[in-house]
C-alpha cells in the first residue's frame, strides 16, 4: 500500500476546499502517418466479466469515506467492490473499538459506516482481517458481527496486507508483531484464521496475500522457508483458502507503466501455475484478486486513466475476479506537469481539496473527479457483468485494444491510445462478427477532459483516436442472433504430451436447429487457427510444438449454419518428450528478484559420443535474457538462446554430462523455458 499523509497534512487536505486550477491546454497533437490495424476476434473467447469486477479502496483515515456525495460518485462510476479498512492500516486496525494504534483514524469511518456506503453504492465489501497485530479470534468476531449480528453478508475476507513487507526480506513497512515473521508462520496462521472465521460462517471466502510474479520479492527465498513466499504460503495454506490477493505498482515513467501492462497475461499465468503446483487438490477453485493498482507518474492525469482502463481490462480478460484502484481519497504529493496537465501526485481518484504546505498550489474542490475516476467510468460503459471478453489486438505498441461480447449480440471495443503526442487513425477488422451499418455509440475520454463525451457517429471499421485517449465503440450486429446454440462448456485437457493433447468439453445446448459439429480453435494473438472439428465432445490435437503454451476455444455450429459464442478459454502447455537421445536439466538458484544463477546439464543418452554440440531454446517472454555465462559460448538474438561448447567440453561421451552456467535476468514475470533442442533433436527434461 502507499501510505497516507501525516494527520496534519491529511486534515488540511480534507478540510480545505480550494478552487480548481485553470486547465492548461495540452500541446496540439499531430496525426501519426500510418493507420493502425486493430483485430477483434469473437471466436477467441476469454473470461466472463464477474459482478465484482470494478473495485476501489476505502481507508479509515478518509473522513469522506461514508458521505453520500462520495458514495454516489462511486456508484455512478460503476464500482462493484470496495476494500476496507485501507491497505497497511489493516494490520494495525482493531474493528471492535475502531482504533489503529500508530495511525490516524478519521471520524465517521467505522465498519458500520463503511457498510452503509457499500450498500449505497450497490457494491460488495472486501475486508482485510488484521494479521499484523490481530488474532484469529478477533477476525472471527468480526465475521460474526458482520454476517450473524448485522446480516451484512460480507463474503470476501483477506488475511492481512502485503505481509511479505514485514522485514522478512529486509524491507519493513508492514506491521507484524509475531516473533516469527517467516512466510511459513504467515501460512500457518492463515490456516488458523480461516478455520476460526469459517467456523462462524462457512460460506465466506478467505484470501491469502501473495507477491506479484516478476516483482520483489517474487522468487526470493528467505530464512528457513522451504521456498519463495508464494510457494511457501500455498503449500501450507492452499487447501484452506478460496482466493489469493496480489498488488501491482509497475513504477517507472508514465510510458513505462503503460507498456508494462503487457506483463499481466504472463503474471496471471504464473500465478495459476503456482496454484496448480503448490496449493493442493482442486486448486482451480482458487480465485485471483488484484486489490491495489496505481502508477508513479501521472496519478491524477491521463496516464492513470489509460493505465486503469488497460490494466483492469487485461486482468479481467485473464480471469481475475476483481481489480481495485488505490484509492478513493489520499492527499497531495509532488506537483508536476504531465502532458500539459497539472498532476498533484495524489493516489486518490477523487480530489481531497488539499493544498501544498506553502499554499502555493491547491487541488480542485473536494470530490472533484481526477482522470482515473473517468477511466473507471469508461470501464463501466465498456465491460458489464456477464459480458464475455474476446481477443483483440493491434500492430502498434502505443495502441491497445480490448473487446467484450454482450448477451444481446452487441460488441463493445475499448481502444487505448498511449501516445501523448500523436493522434492515431485505426482500421478495425472483425472475425466472427459482422457489424451493422448503424453508426456505433462512441464514448471518448481525451487528455484534460473533465468528463466523457458520448455520441452516435462514424463507422465500425475506422476511427481516429486522439492522443492520450480512451475510446469505446458499442456496435450492433448485422443479423439477428436468435436461435444460435449456447456456447460449449469449460474445456479441459488430458493426455498432454510434447506434441498432442485431448480436449474435452460439456455439450452446447441446441437453439433453433440441431448441433451439427464442434470446432476447436487456437488463439494465435488476435487471430484464430482452427485445429479441427468433430461431432463428439472430445478432440485430440496433434502436431503441437513442444514447450509451447496453447489457448483454445470450442464453438458449436448447428445444421442451419448458426455459430455459438466461444466457450470459456482453456490454456495448457506442452512439455518435452518422455524419452529422447538427450536430456537437459535446467536449474535456477539464488534468485534476487530480477535475476538468478542458471544452469544447464546436457546429458547424452545415446550410445555414441557427441563431437560438437549446439543447445538452443527460446525464452517465453521478451524481457528475459542471458546476461553472461561460463563453461560454454552463450549467444542470444531476440528471445532465442544458442549455447555452444568450449574446447574443453566439445565432446559428450555416451551416457556423459556437460554442465554450463549463466546469469539470467528478467524485468517481468519469469516464465521458464520447458523445451530444449540439442543438434536439432528435442531433448527430454529432467
From TrEMBL:
Pfam family for this entry, one: fn3
Location of the CBM2 domain: 575-686
UniProt-recorded name of the protein: Alpha-L-arabinofuranosidase
Keywords, ordered alphabetically: Carbohydrate metabolism, Glycosidase, Hydrolase, Polysaccharide degradation, Signal
Region (Disordered): 479-498
PROSITE patterns associated with the record: CBM2 (PS51173), FN3 (PS50853)
Domain spans labelled Fibronectin type-III: 487-577
Keyword ATP-binding set for record: no
Any single biological process term in GO: polysaccharide catabolic process
Region forming the signal peptide: 1-22
Biological source species: Micromonospora inaquosa
Gene Ontology molecular-function annotations: hydrolase activity, hydrolyzing O-glycosyl compounds; polysaccharide binding
